[in-house]
Design a protein that fits this description.
Length: about 70
């Protein structure tokens, strides 16, 4: 699994997942809270099957320089 979720997208995914869990807990809706685990998981793994299906890659590897 190659990285296809960028750092900004990773932060947004984790925050969105936490928000879904919070709303699900507030309204006592377990399916909504469980749905919040998906963006958290894809954010932490930095890999998303939907991004891969659409051919989107948010990871930028050209900013990494080799100092050897």
């Amino acid at each position: 699994m190659e990285c296809n979720v960028g750092l900004k997208e990773q932060k947004l995914r984790v925050l969105a997942g936490l928000a879904l869990i919070g709303v699900g807990a507030y309204y006592n809706t377990k399916p909504l809270a469980a749905l919040g685990l998906v963006p958290i998981l894809t954010g932490m793994l930095r890999w998303c099957p939907v991004n891969q299906a659409f051919g989107y890659n948010g990871c930028k590897t050209d900013h990494i320089k080799d100092y050897t």
